[in-house]
């Protein structure tokens, strides 16, 4: 939006002469929709935990309502590794899970359900060779933008989750910030 400001003589009502008696004012809307990314891009959690809270942050603006999608997948799609946590056995999967930020909202938390090591249908996830015990399983959560919404996805668009396969029932959730 822009407009002109002009100086006038108070008594005559005529515009004053000179180069410095008129100026154009432009108002810029500096608040943009912003950039969405994960607050933490690397998390560790005990296999005994029931849920995992993932926080998304909206930075560099918060104008308007915007949304993004979350998807979970194996850490390494190409490889069938014991290190890959399995959907519906180690965690409940998310597929195009919508996360909506209202105008002015800068933080959202999404809860992911973790499943015990026996899986939902009793399938054991422990290795066949007990001497080679797995100490962790991993999966990733990926942030994506639906459609053509006018905002950006941060370079912090992937969160790696490590499920620690320790037997200690009191193991606490450990959060590690990874600075990119």
Q: The CATH topology is what?
A: Immunoglobulin-like
Number of distinct helices: 0
Count the strands? Answer: 12
Indicate the CATH class. Mainly Beta
- In one word, what is the shape? rod-shaped
Proportion of helical residues: under 10%
Going across the major beta sheet, what is the strand order?
Answer: 7-6-9-11-4-12
Query: How much strand?
Result: 35-45%
How does the helix and strand content classify structurally?
Answer: mainly beta
Task: Describe this entry's structure for a reader.
The chain has 180 residues and is mainly β. The chain has a single domain (31-176), classed as Sandwich (Immunoglobulin-like), CATH 2.60.40.2030. It is 0% helix and 39% strand. The strands form three sheets. The protein has a six-stranded mixed sheet, with no helix packed on it. Strands 8-5-3-10 form a four-stranded mixed sheet, with no helix packed on it. The radius of gyration is 26 Å and the shape is rod-shaped. The two termini are 37 Å apart. Mean pLDDT is 80; it is low at 119-131 and 168-180.
Topology:
Elements: E1 2-6, E2 22-26, E3 35-38, E4 42-46, E5 51-59, E6 66-74, E7 97-101, E8 107-113, E9 136-144, E10 152-153, E11 158-164, E12 174-176
Parallel strand pairs: 3-10, 4-11
Antiparallel strand pairs: 1-2, 3-5, 4-12, 5-8, 6-7, 6-9, 9-11
């Amino acid at each position: 939006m822009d407009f002109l400001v002009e100086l006038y003589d108070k008594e005559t009502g005529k515009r004053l002469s000179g180069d410095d008696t008129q100026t154009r004012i432009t108002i810029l809307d500096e608040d943009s929709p912003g950039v969405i990314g994960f607050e933490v891009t690397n998390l560790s959690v005990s296999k005994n935990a029931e849920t995992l809270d993932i926080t998304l942050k909206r930075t560099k603006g918060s104008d308007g309502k915007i949304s993004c999608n979350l998807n979970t997948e194996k850490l390494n799609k190409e490889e069938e590794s014991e290190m890959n946590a399995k959907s519906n056995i180690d965690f409940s999967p998310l597929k195009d899970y919508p996360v909506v930020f209202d105008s002015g909202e800068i933080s959202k938390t999404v809860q992911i359900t973790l499943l015990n090591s026996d899986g939902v249908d009793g399938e054991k996830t422990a290795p066949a060779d007990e001497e080679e015990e797995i100490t962790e399983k991993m999966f990733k959560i990926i942030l994506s933008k639906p459609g053509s919404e006018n905002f950006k996805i941060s370079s912090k668009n992937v969160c790696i989750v490590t499920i620690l396969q320790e037997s200690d029932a009191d193991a606490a959730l450990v959060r590690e910030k990874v600075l990119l």
